[in-house]
Amino acid sequence: QVQLVESGGGLVQPGGSLRLSCAASGSIFSIGTMGWYRQAPGKQRELVATITSGGSTNYAGFVKGRFTISRDNAKNTVYLQMNSLIPPDTAVYYCKAYISVIARTSMDYWGNGTLVTVSS
Questions:
Q1: Residue 62 needs a FRET pair 20 to 30 A away by CA distance; which of 15, 37, 77, 116 works?
Q2: How far from the centroid of its chain's Cα atoms is residue 83's Cα?
C-alpha cells in the first residue's frame, strides 16, 4: 500500500539547477529517516544525502555544498535541491524512506527513481 514517487528530474545544462521531490503515500503511521541515492550507468548505487525525522542531515562528500536535502512532514515529502550541476551528476536518483505503517510494522521503502541528465 505504501508508495514513494519521485519527480523533478530532467535535462539541464552544466551549472543549472533542479529540485527533486519524493512524496510518500499509503497507510502510513510515521516516517523516520528519508534519503536520496543515485546510480549512474554501469556504476553502483550510492548515497547522496539523508535527513532524520528531527531534521539532522548527512551528505556525501561529492555534494561539495551544492545540494540541500529538506523535508515537509505534513506532506510526507522529502526534497533535494541541486545547484551548480555538472555532468558527473547524471544518474537515476532514488528516494528511500524508513516507514512504519498503520499495522505497526516498519521497513525501508524505495521509489522507482527519476532521471537527472546534465549535458550541454
A1: 77
A2: 15
90: left (phi over 0), alpha (psi -120 to 50) or beta: beta
Gap between the Cα atoms of 22 and 80, Å rounded: 9
Q: Scanning the structure block, which residue is given the C-alpha cell 524505495? A: 110
Rounded Cα distance, 29 and 18, in Å: 30
Alpha-helix residue ranges (DSSP H) falling in 39-117: none
> Rounded to a whole number, what is the largest CA-CA distance in the chain?
48
Residues 6 or more apart whose Cβ sits within 8 Å of residue 77: 21, 22, 23, 24, 71
pLDDT of residue 57: 97
Binning pLDDT at 50, 70 and 90, where does residue 73 land? very high
DSSP 26: S
Q: What is the average per-residue pLDDT within 52-64?
A: 94
> 119 with 30: CB under 8 angstroms?
no
